[in-house]
Amino acid sequence: MAIQFPVPLSTIQLHEKWVADFIAQLGKSCTLFYPFLMVSCPNCIGGFQYLTGGPYPFTTGSPCPYCNGTNHIQTEPNPDVITMLIYDDPRDFILYGEFKVAIPAGAIQTRGLMSDLNKVQRCNRMVRNSIDGIQTMSYTKAGEATPMGFRQTEEFVQSWTRGAP
Ligand SMILES: [Zn+2]
């Protein structure tokens, strides 16, 4: 939402620094997981011909043992760990824009730095890392990330619901 009154640049910059410090110091470590990617099989040509150098040699004409003759394999991109503020209590949720959503049980909001927005947009699952390092709470995104702040360039808010995709 655009602001309707002038705010000194120094105030904006102070606020943005405060937000960055706030997220860095009080934020929690969150692991972002990305959708599987389909890539060409490194072991065959077309599914039925061995690709020289591949890990599992086989006889031309039989299906490649690495991809079962499909010539494609799934790979999981490496997860990323970022720091975000987590709001567990719906009373703390930041209501933005014109949206008034029904909030499902267990839903959370996170507030992150814009530099991490691309990762959050690409992920299909987030796990909040518990203090003891045992990852138990898995979330999927509810709606799109919304930029926040005076200039909407420094931070974003994302809503999440419990559960894996
Ligand atoms: Zn193959």
| Poorly predicted ranges | none
In the sheet with the most strands, the strands line up as 1-6-7-10-9-8
Percent range for helical residues? 10-25%
| Bound heterogens, unique | zinc ion
**Count of the separate structural domains:** 2
Instruction: From the 3D structure, determine the CATH topology of the largest domain.
Output: Thrombin, subunit H
Assess the beta-strand content as a share of residues. 35-45%
* Annotated CATH architecture of the largest domain: Beta Barrel
Succession of helices and strands = HEEEEEEEHEEE
Tell me about the biggest sheet? 6 strands, antiparallel, barrel
Average pLDDT works out at 87
Distance between the termini: 31 Å
Supply the helix-strand structural class.
alpha+beta
